Amino acid sequence: MRLEVGTFPVRDVVVGKRMAWDDGVLEIDVNELLDLVVQDPIEKAKIEVVKPGESARIINYEDVLEPKVKVSGGGTVYPGVCGRPTDSVGEGRSHRLGSVGVVQCLDTANVEASVADSRLWGRGGEKEVRVNSRFIDMSGEKTEIPAATPYAQLFNICVSVEAPTSVAFEEQSRAAASATHRVADRLAEIVKDLEPPDVEVFDFEPKDDLPGVVYIPHLASAEPQSGARGTYGTAVYGQTRLSAPWLLSPTEMMDGAVGGGGASWGGATWILANHPVVMNLAERHGKDVNFLGCIVQRTNWTNQGEYTLVADRAAWTAKMIGAKSAIITTDVRGQRWVGTMLTLAACERSGINTVLLTEEEDNENGNSPPLLFSPAELRGTVSNGTGDVPEPFSPVSRVVGTVEAAPQEWYGELPAVHGAYGAGVVYRDFYGFGRQSYADF
Amino acid sequence: MVSALPSVPLSVGAHRVIKGVRVEHLCGDPSLSPEQDGELMLRIARTALDAIQTEVTDPTLFEPAQHTEKELTHAS
Fold first, then answer.
1. Cβ contacts (< 8 Å) between A375 and chain B: which residues?
2. What pLDDT score does A142 carry?
3. Which positions in chain A touch B72 (Cβ < 8 Å)?
4. Three-state SS for A5?
5. What was the pLDDT predicted at B69?
6. Mean pLDDT, residues A169-177
7. Would you say A352 and A377 are in contact if contact means Cβ atoms under 8 Å apart?
8. For residue B4, what is the nearest residue in chain A, using CA coordinates?
């Protein structure tokens, strides 16, 4: 697979009367974008820009997209999501706006929900069950600790949608996701026919003389929550279901074939399309490794037999394509972690050297192991730290992510975040975006 | 301990681990008839009772006997 990625760097975003990119300045017409957002069933929405370093806090976010578009090679970026075509991506040329995030914010202030609904879909009138209480702080010392989120370094165009109560919960999120995609598509269209200042070429011609490496990300499936017909959540070509592992080219990841929207474990489309592991292995392909591809493993299976089955499938796929080693990650704890470890053990038994890249559990002052479950086969782990943010988050002068004025409590100081589970309210660093490793302490 | 993911309790040294059905319904299976569901529940409970009377030196897995074909098929 060969993909050319043309990047249009952005050093400022200004609100104006036209849609244009000129020498790093992105001008947007908010009214034109709002017209794209306010479509059935969405009735009320707001678009705001926040910049790196600004005293601003983004709340209610469910996902972040990078504006990108296929110029040649077939397919549509972020395939299969929200009814988009499912044709394969990952070849030809794509253009992207660098350092820009289009943030999907779902304002659920008007939604009444039971505790159970809140837990499943991360929202509701039960304020004490604020599952979706993650936030992005754009300023302050915390942006120096990317535990506080890699999104703080982007120009964020926030699409705040009032949850349309005329439709069911899952549809509310899907409607907001569709609207956010329409905005991202329109922004990317600006640079589709321009000549990019920077073009990177990713050519995955096999280099058989170098050691074969695969990357195996584990992504939780929403199927146990949303059922077999669910369409919202972390997806591969739009498919959210539990399924056998998917073998993808790294270029498909770069074109957004794997994405994640969702309150409880998603919000990761920008991250998965700019994946540190994928981009780093891609850079080293042909130099010291033969990057064979990504084997996307789903988790949230319901018993050990199923987990063992898919673990063996992933290991066998890796072995059959010639992998000598694998990097493995997960994206949610609990039983998803068990599935991840079973894949790791299966790879080791198949003779594939594995390295686990992960955030650690809170060790509860030395009273608890750093990993929930470690099989005997686990030999090498790279830690992204615990995600602990020891000092409180400073007050901000602007809060974005609601259609009407945001609740006053969001403007004030927010408490420090302790331990890995606590970090879920900010950002869990499963992929090594942060610098909060032991080397920093 | 009855578990749908026995690797975990075995790895932390639980003495007697009984294999359950699924994370969502550990000791039964709503896709079975009420009679079959009841039988399955009893089988698991009896396995647990047998386990607790069995001397073990290491973490040990006990599997309820006579799984039907249906239980082994993914139902969701």
1. 7, 11
2. 52
3. 305
4. strand
5. 47
6. 89
7. no
8. A303
